[in-house]
Structure formats: structure tokens, C-alpha cells
């Protein structure tokens, strides 16, 4: 028997890879595809594609409307999907809101604050922001967990503050006492950095935030697909994650929020489905989660995401993590032997997510990525939607390899082999780089 | 790789006419939001109308080899030329870069720019190569020169958001 935390055997991995049709295609003059960009979006197993197709072929109807049989079945499928996804992160079904993506999920919360902030409209003072109140974020955030808070500050007159990131990819918590105060109404932080793979101490940070009465919003896009996440112990009030990064379809994201908060939060998007009673003058709203799902929902995508969750559960999230951690360590150890490569982020041996970002000094990340692409190796280059973080770690752009369940040690080796062409193509003086 | 011709690497390592110089009539700062590449570019134009001449183009570029090399080629090809000639060179560069590999470029018009022809096969890199050129036409317009004879392009401004 294989332990629940062991990497996959070759045989298991071959079988797993067989479930992802795209992995058999070739790129750039018939080279095998080495896909190391799952942090941007993962590929989808056949089970997910089949689930989405089966919904359209057999149950397609507008969810939460109509009383005919297909409408009942579609609604059931959608609500079962909600329960499946909720259970995966340890939540009751009615605490999960389906959104278009994680970005919309975070905006949903930011706009709830905004909509509550003429205080006469607020059911709950915790969502009201006034000039003098503060929003705390970190310098490590993806733009999706930064720009919505900048905009919220602009709309309400609240002040945006941030925890700095250190050059080694950790948050600098030395000034936290001054940053997190009774003025802080909301604290937004990423669980795992999409660039560096840093795993932030969210539980401790959330406890500190709660001690001053702030609500805690966690970007879990890079943790839910890679690590066991349990909202009961994480300590957050809200988490956002996307379906397409966890083997699910594009077009579906998830907001989890504590029930008592969802109950008092104002809606973001309004319209059909989210109402209780409508007159020409005004409307009242359905209970959460429907209150936050205006319009015909993305039922087929939710069904596909639920299939992805069942697929992950069958494989085992602990094993996925162990497998990816082994790949990360293999890559870090190969890069450590190349003095012309500088890894940005936590050193080897630390708990980290499935991403490794690095810089080849003297060669721009776009050029590094082009050489890798020429060998069929797909990585992300640029600032990965985390521009302030790149400034903090002193890199204009980085090259990021990010792993998923289907990656192999041979693919890590293919990346390293292709990377070794970079100094040749660009004529780097390796002896000088090594000294 | 045919993308990285020796000429491109030479231009990117030792970009011609690099640095910001005085005097200048307009200065612009353009960014490629996909990758964070940046260029600050100044133009110094003398004369007016059909006699307007690009006396100097100076720039500080931070970016990939393609964007830096393209800025270097730009400076080579437009300094000392009339505005009309410079805009023709820009049009020829843009035609080649956006041709998806169907236009190889005329060396008599774009000089070392022909070495960038491989870029057109990689749509994600076209913006890198156009960054300096778009900055140049923007700077010309801001310097008060009439550039209406050539359609300006705001490709680098509209970048893929990320």
C-alpha cells in the first residue's frame, strides 16, 4: 500500500496523465508538451469534461427557475455541486457562493463593504468603511487581491495599508502591531503566493486580525488545488478560489464566507434569482448564497468543478501535495547547482506551494521563456499579476514553473535541460556569473 | 533559435544611441503591462512641415532583448531622417512585425530591423518589438509634429492585462 503522503509511483502517474487528453499533444515542431504553467490554469481530466457535457446533454435548464423536470434536475445538480465543493474545504453548503472566478469572489466582498458604507444602508457595522478606517493587504498579493481593495479605499475614503514583503519571499511581520490596529476593518492576504510559493501563516494572522475586530479575506487560489484547506481551522472569514486552477472548468470561482457574515452582507450584483420580493419601488433579497448569485448561474461549470473536486478526492489532496513538493525540491536542487540562476522565494526544505520563480541574471524572463517554449516547455514569464511583489524582491520579471498532479520528474529535467540553453543562446559569461 | 539572431543580441547588449539626452521636444514613458517592460523616450525635432527632421532620439529601456534591440534599431533608423521617412520606417516595421511571418521586411527601409522578422511568428512578442516604436510616434505627436500621414497604433498601451 502507498502512504497517503507518498509521491505517485510511475505507474500511478502514467494512469493519471492518461486522464488529461491535452497532455498527448505536441507543440513547436512536434515536441512533447511539458506544461509547467498550472499556476495560471490547470488542465482538465476527462471526468470534468464529461460532467460538463453530461449536464448539457441530459439536464440542461436554467437553475432555480421553472418547475419542469429538467429545471428540477439542473437545480439539483447545481446544489449538489455546491455541497461537494463546500465539503471539500470543510464548509456547509450554504456558505459557498459560485462566482465567475476568484477575482469576482474578492470583488463581491469588496463591493459588499462599499455598498454597506453609506452607514444608514448597513445591517452590520463591520462592513461600514469611513475615512480613518483602514484596509490592510500585503505586498505579496496577486492584483486580484490588491486592486479591488485600492478601489474600495478610493470609494469610501478608507486608507489602504500593507504588510511589506521581504526579499526572501516572506512577509515582514515586524511592523504588524502598527499596521493591524482597531482602525483595521478588513485584512486581505494570500494563503500561498502565486509567484513565490510562500505559504503565509494565515491562521496566526487571522487571529491577530480578529483580535482587533477586522474581517479576514484569504485568497486561496494557490492553496486549495495543492494543500488540504479546511475553513473550520484556517481562521478566515472569507476565502476565494478559482475552479480552473484546480482541474475544473473556466468560468467558475468560489467564495466561501461564514454564514452569519453572508447573512448581513449587502449584495454585489443584483437582478433575477437573488430576490425575495420585488415591487416597482424596492426589493428584498433571498437568503445567502442565492443573494449573491444574480442571473442564471454557471451551472454546467459548477457541475464540472464538483467533478474536479471528486477527482481530487479520489486521488487524494495529501498525495497531490507530496507529489508536487517532490517536484519542487527536485527543481530547487537542480537550480541550486546553477549559480547563474537565482530562485526568488523560500529556500528548499520549507513548506511551499507548487510554484518556483527564478531569475537568470542578465537575461530577461521573456527571453528565458522563449528558449524554454522553443523546447516545448510552457512556463509563465513576467510579473504574474503581482507587480508590487516583483519590485519588493528586486526583479522586473521572473520565470515561473508551477506544478500540478500530472507533472513528472522527467518534465523537471526537461525544464532544466532547456534552461541550460539560455546561457548559450545569450552568451552569458558563466565563470563571471559563478564568481 | 531563429528568433534570436546575432544582430538582435548585439543590439540588445549594446543598444545604439541609448541614454537620455538634452535637448528634447517631448518625452514619453511607455509600458508593456504584460511583462512590465518600460521605455522612457525623448525626441528632438527640428524644422516644420515636410522639412521636419528627427535630430535625436534618446531613450532608457528596461526589458527583454527584443524590446531593447528594437529601440536600438529605431534610433539607428530614424535619427537624422525626416519625420516623413521615420514614419515610413515605422509603418514598414509594423507591417513586418504584425504579419504572422508573411512579410520578411526590406533592409533598405528598416535596416537591421529585418533581424526582428522572426518576432512576427510569436504574437505574444510583437508588443515587445513595437514598444519603442509606439513610444516614438507618441513622442513625435507630443512634440507638435503632424503625424497624421501614418495611422498611429496604441498596441503597447492596450496590452493584455495580467
UniProtKB/TrEMBL annotation, chain A:
Belongs to the class-V pyridoxal-phosphate-dependent aminotransferase family. Csd subfamily. Its cofactor is pyridoxal 5'-phosphate. Keywords: Pyridoxal phosphate, Transferase. Its EC number is 2.8.1.7. Signal peptide: none annotated. This is cysteine desulfurase. It is an enzyme of class 2 (transferase). Residues 34-415 form the Aminotransferase class V domain. One of its GO terms (molecular function) is pyridoxal phosphate binding. SUPFAM superfamilies: PLP-dependent transferases. GO terms for biological process: cysteine metabolic process. NCBIfam families: sufS. It catalyses: (sulfur carrier)-H + L-cysteine = (sulfur carrier)-SH + L-alanine. CDD domains: SufS_like (cd06453).
TrEMBL record, chain B:
This is Nitrogen fixation NifU-like protein. GO terms for biological process: iron-sulfur cluster assembly. Residues 4-128 form the NIF system FeS cluster assembly NifU N-terminal domain. One of its GO terms (molecular function) is iron ion binding.
